[in-house]
């Protein structure tokens, strides 16, 4: 019988396409590929799941709020773990954020399992971020983060391992006051892993993608992929593209994603008279996004806020796309990474950078530690290690 892994995640990419959801599902699928029998417990959703040979089993919790924590979530997840029939065969119980908090009281019934929390942030880190915005609505909403810290305090110590998905999360976990409730010895960093086989530097579909979009094979194609939210800086991408267009007259900009800021962005494109050169493609699945990246030349992400290791940038790196990104991101500048202040973009320097890229061959440049295969190997090693 295959060793079992149980993953508790309130939402998956089938609810909405966020970074946490993508990371959770990719981990589940790849653990199944490695031979584990994986079960994912989540809330109900309507979207059809792609038919794959190695899909994990999914248990949908009905009649409770979708993609959210609720009294129903805590009650039903506890019932599932309490009545699990093959407790001795479970190697790991993985909590995506707080997803498995209510299962911890039954930990002793799983003698061979490591209980692991995948942390995407901390309550205190979120509270500080909200206060820094100086926006009344955000500050008032931080009350729930204080309650979140209380919940964290009740549960962190029972996990065998707490996985930080990046440096920013690890810093929060190892800073006061979170150090009062989470032992440093239990914290391990495993960075977000990108499926390097899905997002590869293969460009066999390049011409087909361009033909379908009505773009010539010689055009310089820029692209962005993110939620269309004001803080994501898509408006800055458009500003930059407008300047680039003055030099690269056949250039195109592909915008993937949807969100509350779309109307304003379309208005901006209209005012700049770029309607024929900026193409809004809407939300895309990751398979569709990987294919679109084959048809692009340069990836833009001029986010206005500090972010750690956003998946969209890692996916672009894995696909071999050179980057023009915000200085708010933690990546180091290099031959394929140009960083700048989104509020003061040095257009001449950007154009010089673009000119240097024309002769460079398309090659993936994602660090090994950010590949999915590396990430999954790190998780499986935790199944065998004893926390201090």
From TrEMBL:
Name of the protein in question: Glycosyltransferase family 4 protein
The answer to whether UniProt assigns keyword 4Fe-4S to this entry is: no
Glycosyltransferase is among the record's keywords: yes
Instruction: Give one Pfam hit by family name.
Output: Glycos_transf_1
Q: Where is the Glycosyl transferase family domain?
A: 206-328
Q: What is its EC number?
A: 2.4.-.-
- Give every Glycosyltransferase subfamily 4-like N-terminal domain span: 18-195
Any one GO molecular-function label of the UniProt entry: glycosyltransferase activity
Q: Which InterPro entries match?
A: Glyco_trans_1, Glyco_trans_4-like_N, Glycosyltransferase_grp1
Q: Which UniProt keywords apply?
A: Glycosyltransferase, Transferase
């Amino acid at each position: 019988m295959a060793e079992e892994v149980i993953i508790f995640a309130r939402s998956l990419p089938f609810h909405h396409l966020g970074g946490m959801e993508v990371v959770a599902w990719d981990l589940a699928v790849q653990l199944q590929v490695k031979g584990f029998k994986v079960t994912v417990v989540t809330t109900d959703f309507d979207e059809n799941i792609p038919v794959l040979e190695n899909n994990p089993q999914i248990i949908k919790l009905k009649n409770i709020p979708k993609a959210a924590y609720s009294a129903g979530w805590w009650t039903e997840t506890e019932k599932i773990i309490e009545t699990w029939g093959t407790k001795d065969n479970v190697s790991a119980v993985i909590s995506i954020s707080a997803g498995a908090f209510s299962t911890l009281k039954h930990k002793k019934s799983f003698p061979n399992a490591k209980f692991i929390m995948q942390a995407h942030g901390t309550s205190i880190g979120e509270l500080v971020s909200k206060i820094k915005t100086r926006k009344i609505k955000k500050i008032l909403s931080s009350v729930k983060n204080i309650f979140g810290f209380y919940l964290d305090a009740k549960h962190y110590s029972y996990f065998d391992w707490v996985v930080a998905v990046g440096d920013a999360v690890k810093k929060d976990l190892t800073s006061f006051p979170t150090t009062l409730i989470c032992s440093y010895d239990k914290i391990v960093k495993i960075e977000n892993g990108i499926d390097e086989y899905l997002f590869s530097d293969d460009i066999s579909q390049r011409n087909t993608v361009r033909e379908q979009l009505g773009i010539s094979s010689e055009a310089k194609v820029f692209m962005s992929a993110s939620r269309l939210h004001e803080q994501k800086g898509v408006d800055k991408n458009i500003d930059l593209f407008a300047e680039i267009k003055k030099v690269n007259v056949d250039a195109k900009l592909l915008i993937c994603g949807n969100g509350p800021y779309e109307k304003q962005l379309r208005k901006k494109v209209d005012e700049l008279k770029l309607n024929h050169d900026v193409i809004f493609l809407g939300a895309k699945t990751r398979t569709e996004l990987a294919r679109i990246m084959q048809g692009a030349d340069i990836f833009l992400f001029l986010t206005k806020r500090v972010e750690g290791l956003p998946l969209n940038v890692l996916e672009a790196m894995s696909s071999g796309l050179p980057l023009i990104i915000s200085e708010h991101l933690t990546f180091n500048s290099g031959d394929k990474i140009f960083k700048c202040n989104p509020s003061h973009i040095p257009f001449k320097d950007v154009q010089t950078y673009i000119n240097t890229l024309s002769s460079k061959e398309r090659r993936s440049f994602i660090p090994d530690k950010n590949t999915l295969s590396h990430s999954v190997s790190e998780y499986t090693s935790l199944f065998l290690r004893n926390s201090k």
